[in-house]
């Protein structure tokens, strides 16, 4: 019985680590954005790691996949189980911290393919920890499935393929797009809220300075005159109590000079969007390609605009540096990171329908009608 439980645990943990790793390996840039959230000063306060987020993301997801393969093969069981235990203990702490303090709303465990709430992520990690502890106690029952040379070759092949996949999707785009802005999506429909959808519930919170410290006091306590004597009103905010229906696309805007052009742009029959969430971080190679493509698209009747979260001064410098003749409009950086991973990248719209998306390395493959 002990052996059966161990082998079941071995299969469950190995398969789950491989699936979870491959989903994130499909989009390592997206996972690096999630790590940046964790490294933020408001969460783990490890901002010095933010510049290395992509490197860490690639290492973690490749290691995750390879560990799953090693476990299934029975390759170096002691090292494998210890590594699995260390990873799951760390991620269990991380998901508990996020859930308890409500710091990061989605752990990114399965990328954009499967969204888990913080408590769901923590529960998943606790279950995994249970199965890994079974493996830890019964390490001697994890026997090799192949000869040593065959296992060495298989593990090396798994590592090499993962490394190649990470490099490929970084130079192009994710092999499978799980995001709300995937090709075939109609942006207007993605922003719609169905009739009768559950609405979010908020609680009004007042902030008073009490003995020099900003203190939150509920609306009920304020109405009941329970504000401490001498407290000074500072601000009021709405605290989310219950999350209602959130449409897949809920933060897409196109603005310029204080005006909202979202609706008018989405009604255009042919639109080219150059997405560059931060012009300071845009790849020079890609930026040099945009103006030539702009001219080709304009000649075929396309409306061409850039989308960025950068300020007007940086936009002016960028346009001058690369001799660009199209206008940039403002859109939130997080939204632009969600739309596309490359910086810059190309998105083709037809009346709000996303018909093509491309990394700047594949700009010559974009078809213009």
From TrEMBL:
Q: Which organism is it from?
A: Flavobacterium chuncheonense
Keywords, ordered alphabetically: Membrane, Transmembrane, Transmembrane helix
What the entry lists under InterPro entries is as follows: Methylamine_util_MauE
Q: List all membrane-crossing ranges.
A: 7-25, 48-72, 79-101, 121-138, 150-170
What topology in the membrane does the UniProt record assign? Multi-pass membrane protein
Where, per UniProt, does this protein localize? Membrane
Q: What is its main location?
A: membrane
What is the protein named? Answer: BT_3928 family protein
Q: What is the lineage of its organism?
A: Bacteria, Pseudomonadati, Bacteroidota, Flavobacteriia, Flavobacteriales
Q: Residue limits of the Methylamine utilisation protein MauE domain?
A: 3-136
């Amino acid at each position: 019985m002990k052996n059966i439980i161990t082998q079941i645990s071995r299969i469950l943990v190995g398969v789950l680590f491989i699936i979870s790793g491959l989903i994130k390996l499909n989009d390592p840039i997206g996972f690096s954005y999630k790590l940046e959230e964790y490294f933020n000063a408001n969460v783990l306060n490890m901002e010095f790691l933010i510049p290395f987020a992509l490197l860490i993301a690639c290492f973690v997801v490749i290691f995750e996949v390879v560990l799953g393969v090693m476990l299934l093969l029975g390759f170096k069981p002691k090292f494998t189980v210890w590594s699995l235990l260390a990873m799951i203990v760390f991620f269990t702490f991380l998901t508990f911290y996020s859930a308890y303090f409500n710091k990061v709303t989605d752990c990114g465990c399965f990328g954009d393919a499967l969204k888990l709430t913080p408590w769901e992520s923590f529960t998943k990690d606790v279950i995994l920890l249970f199965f890994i502890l079974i493996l830890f106690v019964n390490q001697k029952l994890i026997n090799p499935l192949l000869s040593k040379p065959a296992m060495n070759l298989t593990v090396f092949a798994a590592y090499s393929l993962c490394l190649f996949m990470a490099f490929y999707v970084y130079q192009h785009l994710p092999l499978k797009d799980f995001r709300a802005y995937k090709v075939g999506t109609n942006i207007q429909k993605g922003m719609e809220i169905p009739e009768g959808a559950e609405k979010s519930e908020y609680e009004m919170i007042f902030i008073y300075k009490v003995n020099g410290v900003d203190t939150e006091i509920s609306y009920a306590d304020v109405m009941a005159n329970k504000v401490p004597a001498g407290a000074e009103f500072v601000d009021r905010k709405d605290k989310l109590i219950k999350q209602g229906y959130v449409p897949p696309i809920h933060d897409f805007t196109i603005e310029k000079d204080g005006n909202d052009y979202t609706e008018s742009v989405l009604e255009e029959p042919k639109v080219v969007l150059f997405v560059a969430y931060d012009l300071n971080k845009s790849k020079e190679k890609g930026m040099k390609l945009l103006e030539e493509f702009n001219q080709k698209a304009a000649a075929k009747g396309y409306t061409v605009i850039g989308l960025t979260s950068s300020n007007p001064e940086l936009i002016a410098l960028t346009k001058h540096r690369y001799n660009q003749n199209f206008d940039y409009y403002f859109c939130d950086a997080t939204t632009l990171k969600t739309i596309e991973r490359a910086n810059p990248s190309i998105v083709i719209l037809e009346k709000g329908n996303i018909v093509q998306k491309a990394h700047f390395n594949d700009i010559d493959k974009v078809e213009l009608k």
